[in-house]
Amino acid sequence: MAERIGVYVCECGPNIKDAMDLDEVVTFVQGLENVVLTKAFGLLCAQEGQELIGKDIKEHDLTRVVIAACSPKEHEKTFRQCLEKAGLNPFLLQIANIREQCAWVVKDKSLATDKAKAIIHAAVRRVAYHEPLEVKEIACQPHALVVGAGMAGISAALTLAQKNRKVYLVEKLPCIGGKVACYEDVFPSLECASCILDPILDEVLHNEHIEILTLTEVQEVLGFYGNFLVKVTKKARFVDTETCIGCGACLETCPVTVKNEYNEGLDERKAIYIPYAGALPNVAAIDKKHCLRWQGEACSACREACPFGSITYEDTDQVRQLRVGAIVLATGFDLFDPARAPQYGYGKVEDVYTSLEFERLVNSTGPTQGKIVLRNGQVPEKIALVHCVGSRSGKFHEYCSTVCCMYLLKFAHQVTRQLSGVSILGFYSDLCLPGKEAQGFFNKISQEGNIQWLHMKEPDSIEITQADGKTLIRFTDVHGSPREVTSDMVVLAPAMEGARDAGAMAQIFDISQGAGEGFFAEENSQIAPVSTAIEGIFIAGCAQGPKDIQSSVAQGQAAAGRILSRLVPGEKLALEPVTAEVDEDLCCGCKLCVGLCSYKAITCDNLKNNVAINKVLCRGCGTCAAACPSGAIKAHHFTDTEVSEEIRGLLRQG
Amino acid sequence: MTGKPKIALYWCSSCGGCEESVIDLAEDLLTVTAAVDIVFWPVALDFKYKDVVAMNDGEITATLINGAIRMGEQEHMAKMLRKKSRLVIAHGSCAHLGGVVGLANFYRREDLLSRLYQEVPTINNPQGILPQLETIESGRKVKLPDFHDTVKTLDQVVEVDYTIPGCPPTPELIKEAMMMVLEDRLPPRGSVLAEKKALCDTCPRRDSKPDKLRITEFKRVYETEWDPEKCFLAEGIICLGPATRGGCNARCINANMPCRGCFGPTDDVRDQGAKSSSFLASIIDVTDKEALKKIVDAIPDPGGLFYRYGLASSILKGKMTRGRS
Amino acid sequence: MKGFEPKIIGFLCNWCSYEGADAAGRARKAYPANLRVLRVMCSGRVDPQFILEAFKEGADGVMILGCHPGDCHYKEGNLQTLKRYYVLKRVLSTLGIEEDRLRLDWISAGEGDKFVQVVSEMTERMRQLGPLPR
Fold first, then answer.
1. Which of C47, C51, C115 is the best mutation test for A, with the most CBs of A within 10 A?
2. ipTM
3. Residue A250 pLDDT exceeds 70
4. Domain made up of C8-129: CATH architecture
């Protein structure tokens, strides 16, 4: 090695100077191999210090520089810039930390002098082997991915599209609109849900910047803020979305009948189906699991019935790679399964419904066209509304789902409006009515119908059983007295939980989830409620926690705002120059490194029988290099040689 | 003198297997011997030491030395042959890495001698006499070579030009090395004359290796029945193929045995054992401390396993004890 | 063994432990001068070969300090280190290197005090063990 190394020892005022014998240090350094210049200086980080280094690099033809001073955390960037200005690659610098890790912690002057010598020696030996590294830049990707086409996801997508950002709106169901699209009315305005939703959905469907991917799920996410690579699978619909007008002719001829999950299993649908009347996009889909063609039968009833030739049995699942700069997860919620708490009789007592089932029951596009009837077809005279199922107790979830009181009041209104003379029993232990509208809504609904409020001791002081054809409700009232009533119908308000597949999502996107309830964890619940620990991945709506429509919309728009403010088209992202690289001539394709990379930056080319490291994805931790049994992976700036030289420098005397 | 290139073969601390590997050239041995003059080969032919000493420096075209260096006499012979030869080729794992005999570096010299001459049940040595450098036998002074403190590789004693790896090397590699010498098409000095990449590259079970290896238990070969088509590591059987230079024709793998590492590490690895321990640790699919300890404790004799051939050439070169040389 | 001062090499990860060491410095907390620090981006970079080299080059003890599990800047690099550490310890014992001569610990950026404590303990233990025989 014939490097020309300049070593600068910073006195840092008295900080370093008084802690050790600097003359001895300088004399020692002058005797080291490759060192052509050694200087002690008062304060290197000051303008004069930087100028001195720059001048020396040119005058003395320095090829490497060692700065013995404060921690690299303080001024490594400063001195790298200094090298760069003088025409030297900034990575040909090594900082010897003789302040924080020597002068300030070693009280004995002679020991501090020895330690400083060792630290500088290591830096000198190491820097001789440094390679110039280039900081590469890539264009940041202004497109965004929104997962979940419910209220929050749609709000985010529309806000982004307003600024002409391309948005991929991914939805696993065949239709968009989320849970709200299944509701008849919304609280507290009691407007019809479709009156609010349909114009928005229409805007989404016809927005040129939004590409809707229904029946689509995310498989894998690589990369980082500004440059995510997302692999999605779009399941075959087997119906051409361009030509199908949703006339329903195919539905009538389909011979297969299965439970309709879009009506919460309360009625049946065909193997080719439209989830519910008014579902958007208004296009049929074939359920491959039940269609006879995939059971080995030669049925083609739907294709024959279709007047537009829209049935395409040849469709296959499509895998797509989406390049986006940011991601909004708006995957919504599912309800706590009340069967887990047998005291509510759900699944055993005939006319016990969850709130989502009741939403369908009361919906004009639902299984009874909106008629509130019992399973035997009769009209109920008494309906019980049960609050806090699985919530606010130590047994299941401690939290309050925040919206149940309000929607149960909405149900009371809907019931009263349809069935005059019906009596309503409200089983509650506390009511949650915060904000500027809720109490007024409660007052209004309480007055309009025949509601009897039954105040329970605890949220779960209730037991629902079937007796003599009647539904029997036993409960403990607020005074501790056992009481008993009967009802024809019971509607439960189960706790909201993160979507059933939120766990899988959290793994794919590498974000955290709260324990038990399945909601995604925000970066900071106070000041960063829509951010996650992963930069560039945002959460919105009920995926983050239980909330109502207006809060979901606000979060969706907030997440979009965060993206618009930072992810500016045309801006460049600097890539990490300290990365790992594979020597193809040495790599034997053992693939042991592939599974070690937290960033999935290592892929195996089974044809060439070696691995490659994606420079854009690699963050430079060096874990793969330490494991590579062939020594085929080089960790730039921390190569085996650089580290070995540093070890020698730290341990050998000169 | 025929003017043909002169070749010498010598053995030091070895089992004799490397000598056998030369004989394993079979008919090819005739081709080779017809092209050269063998001037020294104590195991097979009757040449005299003094005749070799009398040769000019560099007169021998190439000398193949197998075996590690433990005795003074071995060091002396290696140095003498180095002087007489244009090329010195380390032949086999012991000369290359220290080999199985290098495992002696796990013990101190005194312990080895006292064990062998004083403690083993089969010894009859009531006075506890240990080997001496000189002794008087029937009135005559007899000299014995000294027994060094540690086992050394050949290149720790003399400069080595090339290495034929393996325990023993394959006849193909020996023949190819000889042809390289004869046809003067040798690679850069210092090369190991085998594959550049590790064994996995040419392993017949390569395609059965999963993209992400994850294991929760190390199994020994007698403890399990394994799929003879499948990567050993995928079956939880420790195989050092990823950390071992290829070029052996996957002899062990083809005999349904995992790689033990006899070809040594690839060029950029300084310690085959350390690297082996690192890659094996990486594929353990557990980070809970108790479970991890249980899995790791099940690795049989990790020192012997990872350094079966490479202890004497490893970074530490053997057990850290006082007074090593 | 009186008067023996061990040499200790510490591999510190850039994001947590090296910060922790700097924090100790900023707080002017004195600790034994025996430690020589080598900064790596992640404790996952620490190849067992480096540890053997340190012992060969004269270290009496080696420490690897990384982020606490779950806090690794690179997600899981420290867990790879944890696994390697367990395997390597078994190898080291066959090479005559006492178990305590290699120590793995987790030090966060804010744990200057813990850093000082760990370095002091390690130094004291190495003084007790004496120089690594060579």
1. C47
2. 0.98
3. yes
4. 3-Layer(aba) Sandwich (3.40)
